[in-house]
Amino acid sequence: MKLPRYMNARIFFAFFLSLITFQVFAQKGEPVIISVIYQFKHINDLNKPGKPYTQEMILRLGQNESRYSSWTDELNRKLPSKSVGKITQSATKSSGSYNFVPTVMVQSRGIQNFDLLQYPALNKLIRTVTLGSSNYQIETSLPVINWKVGDEKKDVGGYTCQKAIGVYAGRTYIAWFTPKLPFRSGPWKLSGLPGLILEATDLTGEVSFLFKELNKGEDNESTAQRMVRVTKVSEKAFDRASAVFEKDPMAAAQGQFPVGSNKPQLAFIDDNGVIYYGEDANKIYNTYKKELKQRRDNPLELKN
């Protein structure tokens, strides 16, 4: 008997969660010494080279570790929320409390709530990501990039930087690093040079991390991941779960909730940060799915 699609997604997530043997809590982290803000640009749709995905990213650096995340999202969270439509809520009282309908947040630009933590001395890379209603942690080794350091130099943000060329995930990057800042880290997963990477661009011009500003760490600012409680999974298991969620977020998210839970409602966040609920969200999401079929996907990582 062929199962409905939402049942397939529920069964997959139930199986996926059954593979998880433990949950972990956020590590303490280190005080931030400096932080760097980058202008990130990525032409993620080759049909629209003139409309790249852009965002400001922040790299917080401690003595032995760093955390990379979205600075744009941090700033947006401080602004008043812009929303359209109504948030559905059940008025059925049960056991002395009201049952709220769970909400599935889908963003037009894909997964945004993530932290990327580098531990150069331990050769460790940790990614924490929110998917549906849960937070996941994926631990791997730092990528090995065979950088070729050249003699060419230029000024970036007031620092004299050296040029280096390296290949990672199918892209060749030109990076500019400064030995004056002795951190073996950089934006995103780029690392391994004898100094902080302040700028990096791939040869096609489709991906770039451009320096915007550098600041001293603030009081109580930490490199620790923001998600307090996370579930540790393998990279392969997370990628499979992520693919299922992207294909049908409503069914996949319902598979995360206990059997008998209220059917979740959709909330869709457009490119401008406006949140749509209910029927408004469904209409815009359906249009969004049609547009996705027309795009020529150009992922950040072309190959492993």
UniProtKB/TrEMBL annotation:
This is GLPGLI family protein. InterPro entries: GLPGLI (IPR005901). It comes from Pedobacter hiemivivus. Pfam families: Porph_ging (PF09697).
